[in-house]
Amino acid sequence: MAEHAWMTEIRALVGKEYGRVYAWDAVNAPMVRQWCEIMGVNVPTDASGQVLAPPAMLQVWCMEGPVANNYPPGSTSENPYEVLKLIEAQGYPSVVAVNSELSFVRDVRAGEKLYYTTRLDSIGEEKTTGLGTGFFVTLVMDYFSQQEPGQSDEAVGQLLFRVFKFRAAQAAAPTPTPAPVTASASAPAPRRPLPGISDDTRFFWDGVRQGQLLIQRCKACASLRHPPGPVCPTCHSFEWDTLQASGRGTVYSFVVMHYPEVAPFEHPNLIALIELEEGTRLVAQLLGIAPDAVQIGQAVQVEFNTFDGDLVLAQFRPVATAAQA
């Protein structure tokens, strides 16, 4: 489609660099420990025992906290998202994040003070997607560690952040007097998508079809792992067998999918990260409970349900609800 005339001024911003956003606190052991505890990983250290921040924490250090846009003194007052406001003013009010890619130069150690700068990397051509029509906007944040006066600050990582700024697609207006539709002419009911099955995952889906929740287990160190994979992440052994899990567990975390509504799923669609009593976790749909009633740590039990005649899925239901069903 032809480019809008008003995009000329907006595209002139591509390549613009925005000033520093500082971290409120230096990299510190308490925050590292709490983050690792929540994620279920060990606190990393170097050979001398000094605490290292997990690479995935990089974005955390320079976040503003619970109060929006509350950045430390000295941080830039420029809005690196100004391009989104300009596009929005032209009738594209919606936004959805589509990419977040972190890359790392080196480990960050306790005591370092970080900041980042932002660059507007690109604005894509106008595109129409299932969500609507709009523009993919890519920003790149470069993270640095402050050094002593007279020394150059060190690059420690980078975040690529891409969003789709769009005008939502309009649903087709209903036909005032729809023509009768015979059963033979009716569109087929949507089917649930089939899982991708490989040599690594086939055992899991074979077990589900037999009403068994099978978890991959390393023969060398007995570590459990899910999703399945060819190599043990703990000891790197290629030898494995399976353990039949009890199917009992607790809600470790969950999300509620409201939009987009994808047939044939019911919405809101409740997806939970279940921690099995054997110790590993898996993602599954949570049934029989309202989204606002779910609690972290809530006891759940697996059940195996068949869809579309031959697709069997492992889903979970709160124990109290399961006992009543």
TrEMBL record:
Q: Where are the transmembrane segments?
A: none
Provide the ChsH2 rubredoxin-like zinc ribbon domain boundaries.
Answer: 205-240
Report domain ChsH2 C-terminal OB-fold positions: 244-304
Has keyword DNA-binding?
A: yes
Write the record's keywords in alphabetical order, separated by commas.
Answer: DNA-binding
Do you know which InterPro entries this protein is assigned to?
A: ChsH2_C, ChsH2_Znr, HotDog_dom_sf, NA-bd_OB-fold, Thioester_dehydratase-like
Q: Which GO terms describe its molecular function?
A: DNA binding
Q: Which residues form a coiled coil?
A: none
The UniProt entry, under SUPFAM superfamilies, shows: Nucleic acid-binding proteins, Thioesterase/thiol ester dehydrase-isomerase
The protein depicted here goes by the name: DNA-binding protein
Natural source organism: Rhodoferax lacus
